[in-house]
Amino acid sequence: MKKQFLKISALSLFAIIFSLSAFAQESDRVWSIGPEVGVNFSKLGRDADDSDYKAGLLAGGFVTYSIRNTYGFTVKVLYSQKGAAYSDEFLGKDIDFKTRLNYIEIPVLARVFFNREGTIRPNVFLGPTFGFMTGAQIKVDDEDYENYEDVFDVNDYKDVYNTFDLGLAAGLGLNIKVGDEMYFIIDARYTYG
Q1: Residue 72: domain span
Q2: Taking a C-beta distance cutoff of 8 angstroms, is the pair 74, 30 a contact?
Q3: pTM of the shown model
Q4: What is the mean pLDDT of the chain?
Q5: DSSP assignment of 73-132
Q6: Of all residues in the chain, what percent are helix, strand and coil, respectively (each to 5)?
Q7: At CA 151, angle to CA 149 and CA 153, rounded to 5?
Q8: Domain tally for the chain?
Q9: What CATH number has the domain bearing residue 27?
Q10: 27 vs 34: which has the higher pLDDT
Q11: What's the average model confidence in pLDDT over 146-156?
Protein backbone atom coordinates (compact mmCIF):
# COMPACT_ATOMS: atom_id res chain seq x y z
CA MET A 1 0.00 0.00 0.00
CA LYS A 2 1.18 3.48 -0.72
CA LYS A 3 2.56 5.55 2.14
CA GLN A 4 0.19 8.45 1.50
CA PHE A 5 -2.80 6.21 2.31
CA LEU A 6 -1.50 5.36 5.75
CA LYS A 7 -2.28 7.49 8.79
CA ILE A 8 -0.72 5.25 11.38
CA SER A 9 0.40 1.71 10.61
CA ALA A 10 1.33 -0.70 13.28
CA LEU A 11 3.08 -4.01 12.79
CA SER A 12 2.96 -5.94 16.02
CA LEU A 13 5.60 -8.62 15.66
CA PHE A 14 6.38 -11.32 18.11
CA ALA A 15 3.64 -10.46 20.59
CA ILE A 16 4.49 -13.02 23.21
CA ILE A 17 1.51 -14.27 25.11
CA PHE A 18 1.06 -16.81 27.84
CA SER A 19 -2.46 -18.02 28.12
CA LEU A 20 -4.23 -20.19 30.59
CA SER A 21 -7.29 -21.95 29.23
CA ALA A 22 -10.35 -22.49 31.35
CA PHE A 23 -12.70 -25.08 29.92
CA ALA A 24 -16.43 -24.45 29.93
CA GLN A 25 -18.87 -27.25 30.78
CA GLU A 26 -19.06 -28.32 27.14
CA SER A 27 -15.74 -29.70 25.90
CA ASP A 28 -16.01 -28.02 22.47
CA ARG A 29 -16.04 -24.50 23.93
CA VAL A 30 -13.00 -22.93 25.55
CA TRP A 31 -12.33 -19.64 27.31
CA SER A 32 -8.72 -18.41 27.35
CA ILE A 33 -7.36 -15.45 29.25
CA GLY A 34 -3.85 -14.10 29.66
CA PRO A 35 -1.35 -11.26 29.47
CA GLU A 36 0.22 -10.00 26.24
CA VAL A 37 3.60 -8.33 25.80
CA GLY A 38 5.20 -7.36 22.53
CA VAL A 39 6.83 -4.82 20.24
CA ASN A 40 4.93 -2.38 18.07
CA PHE A 41 6.50 -0.97 14.86
CA SER A 42 4.70 2.07 13.48
CA LYS A 43 5.11 5.19 11.40
CA LEU A 44 3.07 8.19 10.39
CA GLY A 45 1.43 8.09 7.00
CA ARG A 46 -0.35 10.59 4.82
CA ASP A 47 0.81 13.74 6.65
CA ALA A 48 4.43 12.60 6.97
CA ASP A 49 5.01 10.12 4.19
CA ASP A 50 8.80 10.24 4.57
CA SER A 51 8.73 9.08 8.20
CA ASP A 52 10.59 5.99 9.43
CA TYR A 53 9.35 3.15 11.62
CA LYS A 54 9.69 3.50 15.38
CA ALA A 55 9.53 0.67 17.92
CA GLY A 56 7.25 0.93 20.94
CA LEU A 57 5.88 -1.12 23.81
CA LEU A 58 2.71 -3.19 23.45
CA ALA A 59 1.28 -4.64 26.69
CA GLY A 60 -2.07 -5.69 28.05
CA GLY A 61 -4.36 -8.67 28.25
CA PHE A 62 -6.82 -10.70 26.21
CA VAL A 63 -9.86 -12.95 26.45
CA THR A 64 -10.61 -15.54 23.74
CA TYR A 65 -13.74 -17.63 23.36
CA SER A 66 -13.23 -20.63 21.05
CA ILE A 67 -16.10 -22.60 19.55
CA ARG A 68 -15.57 -26.24 18.53
CA ASN A 69 -11.79 -25.75 18.43
CA THR A 70 -12.12 -24.15 14.99
CA TYR A 71 -13.50 -20.63 15.43
CA GLY A 72 -12.93 -18.05 18.10
CA PHE A 73 -13.36 -14.44 19.11
CA THR A 74 -10.69 -12.43 20.91
CA VAL A 75 -10.99 -9.11 22.71
CA LYS A 76 -7.79 -7.41 23.84
CA VAL A 77 -7.14 -4.32 25.95
CA LEU A 78 -3.64 -3.04 25.17
CA TYR A 79 -1.38 -0.14 25.98
CA SER A 80 0.27 0.66 22.65
CA GLN A 81 3.10 3.09 21.89
CA LYS A 82 2.97 4.25 18.28
CA GLY A 83 4.92 6.97 16.53
CA ALA A 84 7.61 7.69 14.00
CA ALA A 85 11.03 9.16 13.38
CA TYR A 86 11.26 11.88 10.73
CA SER A 87 13.21 14.96 9.64
CA ASP A 88 11.83 18.44 9.11
CA GLU A 89 13.23 21.92 8.61
CA PHE A 90 13.28 24.32 11.56
CA LEU A 91 15.01 27.72 11.50
CA GLY A 92 16.82 26.82 8.26
CA LYS A 93 18.21 23.47 9.41
CA ASP A 94 17.03 19.87 9.00
CA ILE A 95 16.24 18.42 12.41
CA ASP A 96 15.45 14.83 13.40
CA PHE A 97 12.27 14.35 15.42
CA LYS A 98 10.83 11.36 17.25
CA THR A 99 7.10 11.31 17.85
CA ARG A 100 5.46 8.95 20.35
CA LEU A 101 1.69 8.50 20.52
CA ASN A 102 0.31 6.52 23.47
CA TYR A 103 -2.95 4.62 22.98
CA ILE A 104 -5.30 2.33 24.80
CA GLU A 105 -6.23 -0.04 21.99
CA ILE A 106 -9.12 -2.51 21.91
CA PRO A 107 -8.93 -5.03 19.04
CA VAL A 108 -12.00 -7.27 18.53
CA LEU A 109 -10.83 -10.19 16.41
CA ALA A 110 -12.49 -13.19 14.75
CA ARG A 111 -10.14 -16.20 14.61
CA VAL A 112 -10.01 -19.37 12.53
CA PHE A 113 -7.85 -22.22 13.88
CA PHE A 114 -6.42 -24.67 11.33
CA ASN A 115 -5.57 -27.55 13.63
CA ARG A 116 -8.14 -28.93 16.08
CA GLU A 117 -5.70 -31.06 18.05
CA GLY A 118 -1.97 -31.22 18.62
CA THR A 119 0.70 -29.09 20.21
CA ILE A 120 0.80 -26.39 17.51
CA ARG A 121 -2.40 -24.62 16.41
CA PRO A 122 -1.91 -22.05 13.62
CA ASN A 123 -4.64 -19.45 13.17
CA VAL A 124 -5.57 -16.33 11.24
CA PHE A 125 -7.55 -13.38 12.58
CA LEU A 126 -9.29 -10.24 11.38
CA GLY A 127 -11.28 -7.49 13.04
CA PRO A 128 -11.68 -3.85 13.97
CA THR A 129 -9.49 -1.98 16.45
CA PHE A 130 -10.55 0.97 18.55
CA GLY A 131 -7.74 3.26 19.75
CA PHE A 132 -8.02 6.01 22.35
CA MET A 133 -5.02 8.36 22.57
CA THR A 134 -3.83 9.00 26.12
CA GLY A 135 -0.84 11.21 25.36
CA ALA A 136 1.73 12.35 22.82
CA GLN A 137 5.35 13.47 22.89
CA ILE A 138 7.78 14.93 20.36
CA LYS A 139 11.53 14.76 21.01
CA VAL A 140 14.15 16.78 19.15
CA ASP A 141 17.17 14.68 18.21
CA ASP A 142 19.61 17.57 17.65
CA GLU A 143 21.96 19.10 20.24
CA ASP A 144 21.66 22.59 18.72
CA TYR A 145 17.91 22.63 19.26
CA GLU A 146 17.50 20.91 22.63
CA ASN A 147 16.66 24.31 24.15
CA TYR A 148 13.67 24.52 21.80
CA GLU A 149 11.98 21.43 23.26
CA ASP A 150 9.13 23.58 24.60
CA VAL A 151 8.39 24.80 21.03
CA PHE A 152 7.61 21.20 20.05
CA ASP A 153 5.70 20.37 23.24
CA VAL A 154 2.42 18.61 22.48
CA ASN A 155 0.86 18.52 25.94
CA ASP A 156 -2.31 19.75 24.28
CA TYR A 157 -2.19 16.83 21.84
CA LYS A 158 -5.98 16.91 21.34
CA ASP A 159 -5.47 19.96 19.11
CA VAL A 160 -2.72 18.26 17.08
CA TYR A 161 -3.78 14.61 16.69
CA ASN A 162 -7.03 12.68 16.38
CA THR A 163 -7.69 11.20 19.80
CA PHE A 164 -9.77 8.31 18.40
CA ASP A 165 -8.29 5.84 15.92
CA LEU A 166 -10.51 3.31 14.15
CA GLY A 167 -8.55 0.61 12.36
CA LEU A 168 -8.64 -2.85 10.84
CA ALA A 169 -6.28 -5.56 12.06
CA ALA A 170 -5.31 -8.81 10.34
CA GLY A 171 -2.69 -11.34 11.22
CA LEU A 172 -1.34 -14.81 11.83
CA GLY A 173 -0.89 -16.64 15.10
CA LEU A 174 0.61 -19.81 16.54
CA ASN A 175 -0.69 -21.37 19.74
CA ILE A 176 2.00 -23.71 21.08
CA LYS A 177 0.95 -26.05 23.88
CA VAL A 178 3.49 -25.99 26.71
CA GLY A 179 1.51 -27.78 29.40
CA ASP A 180 -1.92 -28.89 30.49
CA GLU A 181 -4.28 -26.04 29.58
CA MET A 182 -1.32 -23.69 28.98
CA TYR A 183 -0.17 -22.16 25.67
CA PHE A 184 2.65 -19.97 24.43
CA ILE A 185 1.15 -17.76 21.72
CA ILE A 186 2.96 -15.82 19.00
CA ASP A 187 1.01 -13.28 16.93
CA ALA A 188 2.08 -11.09 14.01
CA ARG A 189 -0.50 -8.40 13.30
CA TYR A 190 -0.83 -5.55 10.82
CA THR A 191 -3.18 -2.69 11.69
CA TYR A 192 -4.41 -0.16 9.15
CA GLY A 193 -5.94 2.87 10.81
Answers
A1: 3-192
A2: no
A3: 0.75
A4: 77
A5: EEEEEEEEEEEEEEEEEETTEEEEEEEEEEEEEEEEEEEEES-SSSSEEEEEEEEEEEEE
A6: 10, 70, 20
A7: 70
A8: 1
A9: 2.40.160
A10: 34
A11: 59
